């Protein structure tokens, strides 16, 4: 499915740019899909388990030829934890602090966990087990980064 | 197959030295390390040429934009051995996390195998000018591409996530952690070389400090420093002829194979499941039972690690550490208090990684802890880093 098109203004005059991902042979499909606001994840061709991030070796079946292929996922999950970041250690995040990072277990697979920004703001009513769905931040032309929003909060 | 270490109690710590711990020391780190190593050798009653092994833990652990330079921001065993003016036959640096347990294991194994007779083991820490973890990267390539673009970066968010998971799961209050930090600073304030010497912290000061990665407050984090510590290890037999009472290395364990996750993603269950394995291997290796430990020096580079280690080592049930630490039960000044931070830890000394834990085990078990000396200190554990990634060492005042 296509995840929601939550976006955020990326470019303010004079603001430092956020670090942009550099796709490589393995990750190129992930970033190409993200640019279209679709979440796809690497799935091992040997055991069919998802891995975040993919690796030379499948973390589940330990195959040395996992042949990871990216498949669409729902982007839905539940919050396992969160933290409110109040100091920016990277360029481009000063204008975002404070912001919430959520640790999300996706519905597709037990313990399939992804960490991203919660775009509902620092005072969002986040709690353990809260439902979230993937959203995307357009941070540069043709570059979008996965994030999350609370389900039903908007 | 027994998990007991074949060389259990066959190697001992025979001496130590410690530099001042400061935000920035004007002398070059390498020179400070060499002075400290020479002081440790002298403390053990040895001459430099008798020390034929040099072991270091040399990782420079920052996520900031700092290039590690040997002798300046880190000191490897090779750098130091080259400048010691002797010709050591065994030189090795441990590069992983859990630097002190890893380096102790390397030194112990070398001595037990006969690769060296006397090993000096050291750790030199450097605090670069500027913000420790600030990074100027514009592009996130390789493994960074999976976390950096969304702002998941550095050790503060690393510890903020599992700490909050703990608080939420067990209904713990953030305020409970004050007991841990105040105890560390109380003890560190009594140590002359500590960055926090004569500067204890009150509960009110702890609570008034700002959040930096909720629920992590400023004083939940150790402060980056310059500082060096060195220890001399040798065989138990040789150690008995040296000036100080030997402290025996009974066993060690490291977090061997944590689940593969995003970089710096340490969910609470990973920490505790991996930590269970670390602790099980540790006690099997050392041949002791948890209830025999009377000096558990817990790692506190971030204060939540104290909760995790307390529960994993079996001092309180899972989810209860936040209650256990209250009401003076970890007060090292009370005869009935469990001394988990009597050496001040990293929170009370500065970011010396596992050094304060190891040093307190050595000082107490060798009877060299001065006014902090405890009546009963027989079996000690020195922990470092997260239980699933780092490691721990069991020390004993007597071979068994």
Question: How does this structure look, described?
Answer:
Chain A: Residues 72-137 form the ChsH2 C-terminal OB-fold domain. Chain A: Residues 31-65 form the ChsH2 rubredoxin-like zinc ribbon domain. Chain A: Residues 1-21 are annotated as: Disordered. Chain A: It comes from Actinomadura algeriensis. Chain A: Pfam families: OB_ChsH2_C (PF01796), zf-ChsH2 (PF12172). The complex is a heterodimer of chains A (154) and B (400). Chain A is mainly β and 154 residues long. Chain A contains 1 helix and 9 strands; from the N terminus they run βαββββββββ. Chain A has one helix at 28-35; strands spanning 20-21, 40-43, 50-51, 69-72, 76-85, 99-106, 113-118, 131-140, 143-150. In chain A, the strands form 2 sheets. In chain A, strands 7-6-5-8-9 form a 5-stranded antiparallel beta sheet, covered by helices on one side. In chain A, strands 3-2-4 form a 3-stranded antiparallel beta sheet, covered by helices on one side. Chain A is globular and about 40 Å long. Residues 1-11 of chain A have low confidence and may be disordered. By secondary structure, chain B is an alpha/beta fold. Chain B is built from 12 helices and 12 strands. Chain B has helices at residues 29-43, 77-83, 99-113, 154-170, 178-188, 203-208, 236-239, 268-286, 304-312, 321-324, 345-349, 355-365, and strands spanning 11-18, 53-57, 90-94, 118-125, 139-140, 211-214, 216-217, 227-235, 247-254, 295-297, 379-384, 391-396. Chain B has a 9-stranded mixed beta sheet with strand order 3-2-4-8-1-9-12-11-10, sandwiched between helices. In chain B, β11 (379-384) and β12 form a beta hairpin. The longest helix of chain B has 19 residues, at 268-286. The radius of gyration of chain B is 20 Å and the shape is globular. The two termini of chain B are 20 Å apart. The mean pLDDT of chain B is 95. The interface between A and B is large, with 44 and 49 residues. β5 of chain A pairs antiparallel with β6 (211-214) of chain B.
């Amino acid at each position: 499915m296509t995840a929601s098109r939550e976006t955020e203004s990326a470019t303010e005059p004079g603001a430092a740019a956020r670090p942009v991902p550099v796709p490589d042979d393995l990750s190129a499909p992930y970033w190409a899909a993200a640019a279209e606001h679709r979440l796809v994840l690497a799935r091992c061709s040997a055991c069919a388990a998802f891995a975040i991030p993919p690796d030379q070796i499948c973390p589940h079946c330990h195959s040395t030829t996992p042949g990871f292929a990216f498949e669409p996922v729902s982007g839905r999950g539940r919050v396992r934890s969160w933290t409110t970041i109040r100091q920016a250690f990277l360029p481009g995040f000063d204008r975002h602090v404070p912001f919430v990072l959520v640790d999300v277990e996706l519905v597709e697979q037990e313990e399939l966990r992804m960490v991203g920004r919660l775009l509902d703001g620092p005072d969002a009513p986040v709690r353990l087990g809260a439902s979230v769905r993937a959203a995307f931040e357009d941070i540069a032309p043709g570059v979008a980064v996965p994030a999350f929003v609370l389900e039903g909060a908007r | 197959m027994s998990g007991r270490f074949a060389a259990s109690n066959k190697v001992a710590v025979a001496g130590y030295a410690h530099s001042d711990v400061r935000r920035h020391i004007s002398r070059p780190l390498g020179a400070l390390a060499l002075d400290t190593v020479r002081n440790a050798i002298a403390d053990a009653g040895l001459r430099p040429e008798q020390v034929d092994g040099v072991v270091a833990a040399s990782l420079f652990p920052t996520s900031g934009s700092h290039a590690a330079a040997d002798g300046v921001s880190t000191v490897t065993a090779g750098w130091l051995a080259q400048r010691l003016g002797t010709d050591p036959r065994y030189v090795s640096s441990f590069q992983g996390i859990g630097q002190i347990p890893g380096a102790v294991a390397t030194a112990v194994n070398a001595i037990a195998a006969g690769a060296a007779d006397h090993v000096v083991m050291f750790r030199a820490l450097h605090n670069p000018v500027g913000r420790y973890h600030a990074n100027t990267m514009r592009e996130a390539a390789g493994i960074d591409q999976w976390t950096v673009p969304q702002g998941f970066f550095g050790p503060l968010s690393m510890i903020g996530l599992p700490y909050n998971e703990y608080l939420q799961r067990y209904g713990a209050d953030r305020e409970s952690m004050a007991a841990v930090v105040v105890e560390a600073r109380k003890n560190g304030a009594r140590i002359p070389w500590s960055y926090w010497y004569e500067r204890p912290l009150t509960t009110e000061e702890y609570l008034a400090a700002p959040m930096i990665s909720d629920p992590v407050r400023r004083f939940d984090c150790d402060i980056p420093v310059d500082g060096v510590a060195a220890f001399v290890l040798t065989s138990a037999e040789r150690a008995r002829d040296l000036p100080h009472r030997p402290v025996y290395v009974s066993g060690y364990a490291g977090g061997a194979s944590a689940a593969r996750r995003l970089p710096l993603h340490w969910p609470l269950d990973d920490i505790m499941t991996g930590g269970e394995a670390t602790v099980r291997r540790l006690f099997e290796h050392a041949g002791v039972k948890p209830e025999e430990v009377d000096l558990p020096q817990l790692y506190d580079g971030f204060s939540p690690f104290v909760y995790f280690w307390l529960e994993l080592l079996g001092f309180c049930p899972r989810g209860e550490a936040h209650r256990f630490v209250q009401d003076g039960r970890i007060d090292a000044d009370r005869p009935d208090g469990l001394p988990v931070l009597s050496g001040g830890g990293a929170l009370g000394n500065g970011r010396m990684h596992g050094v304060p834990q190891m040093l307190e085990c050595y000082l107490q078990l060798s009877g060299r802890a001065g006014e902090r000396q405890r009546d009963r200190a027989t079996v000690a554990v020195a922990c470092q880093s997260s239980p699933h990634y780092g490691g721990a060492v069991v020390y004993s005042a007597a071979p068994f």
